[in-house]
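Dock magnesium ion; give full complex structure.
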Amino acid sequence: MISVQNLERRYARRRVDALRGVSFEVEAGQRFGIVGESGSGKSTLVRLLAALDRPTAGTVSFRGQRIDHLPERKLRFLRRELQIVFQDPMGSLDPRMRVRDIVSEPLGRRSPARVAELLTAVGLPEDAAMRYPHQFSGGQRQRISIARALAPNPSVLVADEPVSALDVTVRAQILDLLNRLVDEFSLTLVFVSHDLGVVRRVCDRVAVMRRGEIVEMGDVEQVYGAPQHEYTRELLAAAPNLPAELARLQGGTDA
Ligand SMILES: Nc1ncnc2c1ncn2[C@@H]1O[C@H](COP(=O)(O)OP(=O)(O)O)[C@@H](O)[C@H]1O
Ligand SMILES: [Mg+2]
């Protein structure tokens, strides 16, 4: 579905090499996690996957087609097929628009039936359609962004720190929702987080990023259960929920 080869992104003005030789593939139906601390290049990578930015070197392909240097008019398919959910729904939802219009905007037309269907899918009441973003809680606003992302029936959902602004209980609910939607809509998921526990909950494969490089990549069970890279071990050791997670991976009972 997605193939990235030797991707480099240098922010010349600040002389930052945000991505250095990043390569990976995401197969259809996969739940691909990208984990790494703040500043490791995750959001830079997301922008390149979505062709919102151009690489300094390397390639990004979507279903076998290079997208890294296509002009905007040739990216219309990608603007439907790949949707992004961001960390901060308040920043990505227009406060002056009703939920109805926010959710149907990517469709380019009004469709009350489709809006109702999407709101139901993300667990919001149908009367949410007439309300405005500020009338909802943080978790509900993230549900609105997810509904909007699903509107054009994408094949790939990219989520960049989608639960990092939410508190623990709500976070679990949104992760469960994402899990359910990925199945229900047969999505391919690219899930970005600085939080290993969160990635563990939704992903089957994971790439660990550090200073613009992927230092380790593999099945979640393998990377979390038997990390090969020193940095992955450090990240795991710093994860607050590590004992319970590790016990489960290693076949023990939940603490
Ligand atoms: N638009 C930009 N201009 C200059 N530097 C940037 C820009 N975006 C990100 N960076 C720098 O690139 C590095 C990676 O940032 P980012 O991709 O946002 O990391 P992450 O999402 O993992 O926190 C950081 O050093 C950041 O300061
Ligand atoms: Mg980021």
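Observed: The two ends are 38 Å apart (CA to CA).
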